[in-house]
């Protein structure tokens, strides 16, 4: 009995991915990819600069993400792709999905501790207390001890977490892989690039150091995406949990 060819052709080891390049299908030329990425990033970054005070911080964030989602969906449709092909599909195992989500959360915690204890002081040795945004962050002002406000905002936070995984890992990372597919270690470059963009676009509200932390989180999520079958649900669960813990921390802060 021949068992040499029993390997599932759709499943690659992490080593194979890193050594041979992207698994993401490159169905069209680099010019079209650059045009798609340019339109996608322009929408994502430009709309974020427009603020409507009447709808609040989360309202503006969701408008930005939903507008970017529409653009990304149209681009996928034009290329004959779907969100399912990028990982928005039923996970093969709920147990695996939960395990991957827990692994991601553990790696995020370890990475942030390492950054805060080692890298931060090296990169920002003269940073003063006034450089932190924690004391001046008014994005969720009034949530401290306000249960009604917390419950009204947490659902929006979950929606945004869901959208960020679709856009940053599902669309952006995959398209970057396709763009870099002729370059050795294209997956590594794509993961790092999407993490840098993820951190950069959070810098207006998080500050430089906060953007670094966000970029590290994006790096962990990007690695998990390519290493564990490119299914988005474990990432979405982990992202929702992280943002929920951030909101819980804000809720219990002393006004």
Residue stretches low in confidence (pLDDT < 50, at least 5 long) are 1-22, 128-134
Cα Rg = 19 Å
Overall pLDDT metric: 86
Distance between the termini: 71 Å
* Secondary-structure content class: mainly alpha
Order of helices and strands: HHHHHHHH
Describe the sheet with the most strands: none
- Overall, the morphology is globular
Oligomer: single chain
Q: Tell me the number of structural domains.
A: 1
Number of helical stretches of at least 4 residues? 8
Kindly describe this structure.
This protein is mainly alpha-helical. It has one domain. 66% of the residues lie in helices and 0% in strands. The chain is built from eight helices and no strands. The chain has helices at 14-20, 30-46, 56-78, 94-123, 147-179, 186-200, 203-227, 233-251.
What's the structural blueprint in terms of helices and strands?
Blueprint: H1 14-20, H2 30-46, H3 56-78, H4 94-123, H5 147-179, H6 186-200, H7 203-227, H8 233-251
Helix pairs in contact: 2-3, 2-5, 3-5, 4-7, 4-8, 5-6, 5-7, 5-8, 6-7
């Amino acid at each position: 009995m021949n068992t040499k060819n029993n390997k599932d052709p759709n499943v690659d080891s992490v080593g194979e991915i890193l050594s041979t390049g992207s698994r993401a299908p490159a169905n069209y030329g680099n010019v079209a990819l650059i045009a798609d990425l340019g339109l996608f990033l322009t929408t994502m970054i430009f709309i974020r600069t427009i603020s409507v005070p009447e709808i609040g911080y989360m309202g503006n964030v969701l408008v930005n993400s939903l507008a970017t989602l529409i653009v990304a969906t149209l681009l996928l449709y034009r290329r004959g792709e779907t969100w399912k092909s990028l990982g928005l599909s039923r996970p093969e195992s709920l147990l695996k999905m939960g395990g991957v989500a827990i692994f991601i959360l553990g790696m995020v915690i370890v990475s942030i501790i390492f950054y805060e204890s080692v890298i931060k002081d090296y990169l920002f040795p003269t940073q003063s207390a006034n450089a932190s945004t924690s004391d001046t962050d008014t994005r969720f002002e009034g949530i401290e001890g306000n249960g009604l406000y917390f419950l009204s905002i947490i659902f929006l936070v979950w929606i945004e977490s869901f959208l960020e995984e679709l856009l940053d890992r599902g669309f952006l990372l995959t398209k970057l892989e396709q763009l870099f597919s002729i370059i050795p270690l294209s997956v590594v470059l794509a993961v790092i690039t999407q993490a840098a963009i993820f951190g950069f676009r959070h810098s207006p509200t998080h500050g430089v150091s906060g953007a670094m932390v966000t970029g590290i989180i994006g790096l962990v999520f990007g690695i998990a995406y390519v290493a564990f079958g490119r299914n988005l649900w474990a990432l979405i669960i982990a992202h929702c949990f992280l943002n929920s813990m951030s909101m819980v921390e804000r809720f219990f802060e002393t006004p």
